[in-house]
Amino acid sequence: MKISILDQAPISSGYSAKEALEASAQLAQSAERLGYTRYWIAEHHDLSGFACSAPEIMLSYIGAKTKKIRIGAGAILLPHYKPYKIAESFNMLATLFPGRVDLGIGRAPGGSAEASMALSDNFLEGVRKMPDKVMELLQFLNNDFSEDHMFAKISASPLPEISPEPWLLGTSRKSSLMAAESGTAYAFGQFMSEKDGEDIIKQYRENFIERGLIQKPKVILTVSAICADSTYEAKELALSSMLWKIKAENREGNDGIPSIEEAKNYFSSLDVEPFNNRHRIIIGNPKEVAEQLKDMKQLYQADEIMIVTIVHRYEDRLRSYELIAKEMIK
């Protein structure tokens, strides 16, 4: 069973952004050693708790520290940018790391309204033009504009021998239909969606149009999971993630991923039950987590599972991925 990693480059309380990014590089190296299929890193802008604002730069660093694992962005937030520059950046990566580069495309803002304004002046206009931006980006990656197109005489150089593999990331029917009609692979973010993902993925498969990018529909299901040697320990680790999400939802001050002690104090002071379905996290020992991941893969008819893990200590995050790999990668 193929499993992969989505890294949001979390910054834990008491740690710096530099330490978070170094932990991300170490995680990518460990993922390769453990047999994970891909390592993707997310893009965020001026959000406390997230360290990576430029996936393409981080991927060049990680690519140089690994040898065979696929590396990619999860995702480049396309409404902020011109497709030509994104194609150039990822063609550059694909030239440096042949046959290893994925280009995940998303349309979320990735930060505040002020950050969006600083990036691109009119984010909503970029969202409106998203279908056109996606098609233009794919044409630059394929270097296949028609002869009468205004961009026919230019290329997103350097042109790699193996183009980046394009993925559209999303949580809605709109995103799955865009992926299908564009002929890209599709990554459904179950960990951040309350929607009926099975039908969304089914819609993608049923409407897929082959455009020379990939031969058939390809689906990643991205889930949140925390694994430890015991269920009790996994639940303790998950407290940090749950408190962090609650603070983010309530727009409370956020100093990074809180420690277990901070989370325990918070929940006990409010007499709050932290474990409920709205957080959509798989929590347990290796056998429990593996069983749930396999069930979800079957339920959603996914080709691959991608796992995002948010805990306070970077050592515990790595341990979670190690335990899952030992249980699921044979």
Provide key terms for this protein.
TIM Barrel, eight-stranded parallel β-barrel, 12 helices, alpha/beta, Luciferase-like_sf, Luciferase family oxidoreductase group 1, 330 residues, Bact_Lucif_Oxidored, single chain
Q: Beta-strand level of the residues, as a percent range?
A: 15-25%
Strand order of the largest sheet: 1-2-3-4-5-6-7-9
Named CATH topology? TIM Barrel
Poorly predicted regions: none
Which whole number gives the mean pLDDT? 95
Largest pleated sheet: 8 strands, parallel, barrel
- Tally of separate domains: 1
The SSE order reads: EHEHEHEHHHEHEHEHHEHEH
Rg: 19 Å
What general form does the structure show? globular
The CATH superfamily label reads Luciferase-like domain
Indicate the structural class.
alpha/beta
The total of helices stands at: 12
Number of extended strands: 9
N-C termini distance: 8 Å
Specify the helix fraction band. 40-55%
The CATH class, by name, is: Alpha Beta
CATH architecture label: Alpha-Beta Barrel
InterPro entries: Bact_Lucif_Oxidored, CmoO-like, Luciferase-like_dom, Luciferase-like_sf
Pfam family, one: Bac_luciferase
Protein name: Luciferase family oxidoreductase group 1
GO molecular function: oxidoreductase activity, acting on paired donors, with incorporation or reduction of molecular oxygen
